[in-house]
Amino acid sequence: MPFAMASMANVLKILWGCSLALQLSVLLLIVAKKHYQTFPATFSYLLIGLLQSPVVYVVYSIWGYESWQAFRVGWISQAIVTIIRWIAVCELCHLILGQFRGIWGITWRALALSGGIVLLLTLLLGQHDFVRIINTFDLGLECSMATVLVVFFLFARYYRVLIHPSLQSIGIAFCLYSCFRTLNDMLLQTLLRNYAATWNLVDEVTYLATLVLLASAVLALQPRPVQKVALLPSAVYAEFIPQVNDRLIALNNRLSQFLKT
Amino acid sequence: MNLVLIALGIFVATLLGLLVWSVGRKNATGKSPPSQRESLSLACKHLTNLPQIRQALEPGDLTYIANRSNRAIARTVRHERRRIASLYLESLREDFEQLIEAAQVVASLSPKVEAGQEWKRFRLTLEFRWKYQLVRARFTIGPPAFAALSSLALLVSSLALDIERAVAKIGEAAVLTSQPSSSADR
Questions:
Q1: Nearest to B19 among A172, A183, A239 (CB)
Q2: Is A173 on the interface with B (CB under 8 A)?
Q3: Which whole number is the average pLDDT over A50-66?
Q4: CA dihedral for B81, B87, B93, B95, sign (positive or negative)
Q5: Do residues A175 and A143 touch, judged by C-beta distance below 8 A?
Q6: Could A247 and B162 be called an inter-chain contact, meaning their C-beta atoms sit closer than 8 Å?
Q7: Angle between helices A165-191 and A193-220 (to 10 degrees)
Q8: Nearest CA-CA partner of B9 in A134, A169, B17, A112
Q9: Which contiguous run of DSSP H or E holds residue A98?
Q10: Greatest distance between any 2 Cα atoms in chain A
């Protein structure tokens, strides 16, 4: 068992090294392509993620992996990173749908509502003892982030909004990471200390996969990934959409009559 | 706790499924972005075939065949009529989807939309799709009636006319918005 733990720690160190190198490459790529102006939150997220690893590593080296200091520093830094990722998700959604002013008004409300409900539900269903409360918050934030991204993609699909493949990849990367982190957090809540080491390993692997997806997306990102959209006069919607809805009612009534006969 | 774990697992699996569905199909069909107004193609293909469908579903023809030839031929003809009706119903649905797509494009390009109207259209579209499946099932089982088909066809075409009018306005608006002195709501 100690041998297994030691080999796991070595694997973790290698994964840390890989993710640090990848984070640095993505950040340099963003700086080189000047995308930090378009994605300030995503840039900040990667930058803080890069700074988090050495800080946590130092704390683990000094006080040990299972110490309270490591526990506190690990989770507080994680909370900061998660909140910045939340802002990056909001930034991405606004960047893609923000210029469609009309539907964005509905979309952001739906996203806030769905994200809020999921966050509340996970907080209610999660464990609330001293050890697990932070993990419950993390679980809630990850679960609501994944929900928000899925609802966002559903809205974009419903309104036939074409998303640039690179932006879509960034969204998918964030969503997949949140989904797997949700499951990982849930297992940690259930199994606690027995799963702690594995939790770290699984998290590092999913983070590495997310970084690979982000790197490929940033690499393919064009200088202006979002097209300018010329909106219609408000009168077109006000006149046309109620008519379409009336026709739909008539069509459905006709189908109902047909089914009754 | 295990129950919560299972529920959460199912929820995450559903999220992943929805993610795949929402980002996958659009790429497969290669739909145009809403900013491209060429996607507002409104030609109702089904209308041109309406007279032929009327002829194909004429009840007198079937009675004539049943009286003059054997049962097998009459059954084959009946089967063919059902197939034709189903195909026509399918083309009606395709036209409907095209029109709904045009409505979605109009909504997405509007600076102000009403949540009530959007919800109503979403609900009505779902209702249409559900009822369409029922009608289709009924056409597969029972004898297809031309009157029902033609009334549906006329409704879809009148919807197309409404949208065509709106598209004409969109064209006018596009001209206005391209002019710098335009007062169009942007």
A1: A172
A2: no
A3: 83
A4: negative
A5: no
A6: yes
A7: 180
A8: B17
A9: none
A10: 80
Helix (H) or strand (E) holding B144: none
Name every chain B residue with its beta carbon within 8 A of the beta carbon of A252: 124, 127-128, 131
Q: Do A234 and B111 touch (CB under 8 A)?
A: yes
Element (H, E) at B89: helix B71-108
CB contact under 8 A, B34 and A229: yes
| Contacts A–B by Cβ distance under 8 A | 217
| pLDDT tens per residue, range A197-239 | 777 788 888 888 999 999 999 888 877 777 788 888 888 888 8
Tabulate helix, strand, coil % of chain B (nearest 5).
Answer: 80, 0, 20
Q: How far is CA A137 from the centre of its chain?
A: 15
> CB distance A233–B185 less than 8 Å?
yes
Distance from CA of B23 to the nearest CA of A (A): 7
Residue whose tokens read 């769905």: A114
ipTM: 0.81
Q: Is A53 exposed, middle or buried (0-12, 13-18, 19+ CB in 10 A)?
A: middle
For an interface test with B, give the residue of A181, A251, A253 to mutate (most B CBs within 10 A). A251
- Backbone Cα Rg of chain A: 22
Closest CA to A43 of A233, A199, A193, A221: A221
Q: Is A182 on the interface with B (CB under 8 A)?
A: yes
- Using DSSP's 3-state secondary structure scheme, residue A234 falls into helix
Quote the radius of gyration of chain B (alpha carbons, Å).
23
Who among B5, B106, B170 is closest to A190 (CB)? B5
Q: For the beta carbon of residue B51, count every other beta carbon within 10 angstroms.
A: 9
**Cα–Cα distance for residue pair A228/B34, rounded to 1 Å:** 11
Question: Which DSSP symbol is given to B111?
Answer: S
Q: Check A258 against B148: CB less than 8 A apart.
A: yes
Q: Locate the chain B residue with the closest alpha carbon to A261.
A: B148
* Reduced DSSP (H G I as helix, E B as strand, rest coil) percent helix, strand, coil of chain A, to 5: 85, 0, 15
CB contact under 8 A, A240 and B169: yes
Work out the pLDDT band at A154, boundaries 50, 70, 90.
very high
